[in-house]
Input
Amino acid sequence: MVESLTGNTWKAAERVAHLLQQERWTITGLSKVREPDYAAIQEAEIILVGTWVHGAFIFGQAPWAVNSIANLPAMRGKRAAGFCTFALNPGKSLDTLDRALGDTGAYVIGGFAMSRSKLDEHTEEFAARLVTAVEATDDVAPAEAAEAVEAIEAVEATEAVEATEAVEAAETVESAEAAGTV
Ligand SMILES: Cc1cc2nc3c(=O)[nH]c(=O)nc-3n(C[C@H](O)[C@H](O)[C@H](O)COP(=O)(O)O)c2cc1C
Output
């Protein structure tokens, strides 16, 4: 999915898609982040999100429309990678993008900030890195991501129970003390 104002990010996405097809990947869809192709997302194992960097060039940089990522459907069990295109300096745009992608529940396997003046070189490098990252996480990533989420939820649930039990136990001791039975 792409967010593009003047076409650089869209061009980068098309190029990455083309390179990945050469690696025998199937591209389930290419859409705007704000008009997501839900069927393509559901079908895909890996979600790529590209956007352009907006800011004051040397400060305040952020991936444009990062908030629309929060409106994407939950992507637990899928892997995701972000990329952005920039002119001078992307700042921490990629970190922001990674966090937004992680918040969808996806397992983030990397990202890439591409200089708009080096799109050919940088799209190639991104596609190559993706192939490696996906191979490295093929068996483990989705299962591990889902397990990690379940484990966290289980711990949180136990903590809540334990906290309630601890309060109840303290109250019992206190009332026993007050009654002089201990
Ligand atoms: C309003 C505006 C603000 C921008 N701010 C930055 C910036 O802070 N840092 C930077 O490196 N590039 C900045 N750029 C450049 C774009 O990020 C860059 O040209 C990008 O490749 C545009 O992608 P697009 O063609 O997909 O819209 C800015 C561009 C615009 C139009």
